[in-house]
Design a protein that fits this description.
Layout lengths: L4 E3 L9 E3 L2 H5 L16 E3 L3 H8 L5 E4 L15 E4 L6 E5 L2 E5 L4 H9 L16 H6 L7 H4 L6 E7 L5 E5 L10 E6 L2 E6 L24 H4 L8 E8 L7 E8 L2 H19 L7 E8 L1 H9 L2 H5 L9 E8 L3 H18 L6 E3 L4 H28 L7 E2 L2 E2 L5 H14 L3 E7 L4 E7 L3 H20 L14 H26 L19
Parallel strand pairs: 1-10, 3-5, 4-5
Antiparallel strand pairs: 2-3, 6-7, 7-12, 8-9, 8-12, 10-11, 13-15, 13-16, 14-15, 14-19, 17-20, 18-20, 19-20
Helix pairs in contact: 7-10, 8-11, 12-13, 13-14
Length: 521
Amino acid sequence: MTTHRILAQPIALRPARVLTNAAAIDGVRFDAAHFPDGYTTALAVPVAEAEVAWVLCQPGPVLPIGSQSSLTGGATPRGETVLALRELRGIEQAAPDRWRVGAGVTLAELQSSLATRAAFFPPVPAYAGAQIGGAASTNAAGPSTFKYGAMRQWIEGLRVVLADGTVLDIERGQCRAHPDGYFELNRPGGSRRIPVPGYHLPHVAKISAGYFAAPEMDLIDLFIGAEGTLGVITQVTVRVITPAPQTSLIFIPCPTETAALALTAALRNEAQQTWRGAGIGLDISAIEFLDEDSLALMRADGVDAATGIHLGPPTRAALIVQREHGTAAREAEAVLRLQRLLVEAGAETDLLVAGPGDVLQARRIVDLRTSVALGVNARIGLAQQQADPRISKVAADMIVPFEHVTEMLRLFREEFGRLGLMHAIWGHISDGNLHPNALPRNAAEAQAGQAAILRLGRLVTAMGGSPLAEHGVGRNPTKQALLRQLYGDAGIEQMRSVKAALDPAGKLAPGVIFPASADLS
C-alpha cells in the first residue's frame, strides 16, 4: 500500500577504517573538476552499511564520494571527513529484470556482470568508471538518454543512510508525498515532515538541477540527484533489459553544421517512428555532435590521423551515431534507409563504423569525442601555467527541447563571439544537450566567460530548457548561480527546508548544491 509515511530504522554501528596518512589523503583531494585547494584530514573507507552509519555518527561534516568523476567540484573536499564508498560491493539478482548493486560498483563492472546473463543497463553515462551510487546521486545521464532516459527512470530501490545514522529502505511506489505536499519521516526520537518544493522542473530529456519536485512525487526521487546532501546511498536496485541490444557506432563527417542538424532531425524522427512500430526499423539510441571548432582541436592534436579518419577542410561538423540492430529481416532495409538519409543530408561517405562486437573500432570512435574535452582541458592547464594561474575553465551543460537546438547553438556563438572568446561546442544533440566550452587566454576573459554562461542560462531557461542538464551543481559558483536563476531565491529556500528536515546540522556535503549554512534547523 502506498503511503506518505516512511520509517527510518536504526542499525548496529561498526567502526570503519579511517586513513590519515598523506598518500591516502592526496588521493582524494580533487575530483575531475580540478577545483583548487581541496583538503581533508581523514578518509573513511567503510566496507558495510553499518560502518557508513558509524562514520555519520562521528563529530564533524562528511563528504560522500564515489569515483570522484564529478565535473562540478561536488566531490572535492573542503575539510570534511571524506567518505569513500568504493568498498560497498555486491551485485545480485533480485528479480528477472531487477538487480541490487552496491554503491561502490562501477558502471563498467555492472555491465560486465550483466553481460554474462545477456542483460544490459541502458542509462550508462559516457564515463563507465563512475560508481553507481554516485551516478544515482547525480541522476547521471549519457549518450543514450534519447532512447532510454536518465538514471532516475531505471532506479527501482535505494538504501540510504541518513545523517543521524538511521537507514531508509525505499522501493519505488512505496512512499508518495501527501497531496498537501510533504512526506512524514518516522525515526527514533520522533517524526518530522519533509516538505516537497513547489517549483516546476523544465520539461526536458535530462536534468540535474538540485532536488526533484513534483506533486505527490515518489520519495525515492528526492534522493536521486540530491548529490549526497540528503543521505548516503549505499545500495541501488536497478531495472535492466534482456537481451542486450546489438549496436554499431558510426562517425559521420558532415560538410556543414546545417547538414549535421538536418541529419540529426531525420534520424531522430526515424527512431521515434521505429519505437512506435511505424518505422522501417532504423533504431537510433544516441547522436553526438562535434562542431567545426571541436574538429579543429582534433586536427591540431593529431587525433584524426591517429584514428585513421579524414577530417579535411570540407568537414565542418561531425556526428557520432549509435544504432541498435533489429531482426535480420529488417536489417537490410534499415541500412538502406540510413544510406539514403546520409545522401540527402550531403554527409560524407568516408565513414568510420564499429559494428557489433568491434570493441577496438568503437574505442577509436569514442576517443574522437573524448579527445575534444581533453584538448580543452590541456589548453586551460597550459594557459594557467604560462599566462595566468587565475584562468579557469569556462564551460556549460545546457539542454533545450530539440526544436530549439539551432537557436541555442546560435546564442552560444553570438555570446562567445561578442567577447572574442575562442570556443568549441559538442554534446548529446539527440537530447538537445550541448556543452559550450570557451578557451580564455587570461583571467579577464575567464571572468567574462562565466558572466556569459549566466546570460546564456537565462536565455536557455526562457526556451523551456535547463542550464543544468547532466553534470549536477556541486560546489561550482557559476552552476549554483544558474540554479538560483532557474528556481529563484524562493526555490533555493525550499531546497534548504528539505535539507533542514533530513540533515538539520548540515552534516552531509555542506556547500554542495547551495552555500552551506551553519545550522539549517
